Amino acid sequence: xxxxxxxxxxxxxxxxxxxxxxxxxxxxxxxxxxxxxxxxxxxxxxxxxxxxxxxxxxxxxxxxxxxxxxxxxxxxxxxxxxxxxxxxxxxxxxxx
Length: 96
Prior knowledge:
Layout: H1 4-13, H2 15-19, E1 23-29, H3 31-34, E2 43-49, H4 55-69, E3 73-77, H5 83-90, E4 94-95
Parallel strand pairs: 2-3
Antiparallel strand pairs: 1-2, 1-4
């Protein structure tokens, strides 16, 4: 199982490929950041796009990131976060 630092390192190494999906910025959040991840945990990734992607584009990015990391990814659009949830998530993110 990878650490949060390991995940960030992999994502940064593949930044150019990830940008091709229209990604402006990525952040890691959730159990990996808090040090509470288990073997069954997914990787929470918050994403900001240059433009709103189609559902297919979004799913392709989520699958690409999952394949890259070898674990299921929970991809969340920054613009889709409700204010109360956004406050909580923003307290525990690591910028990629």
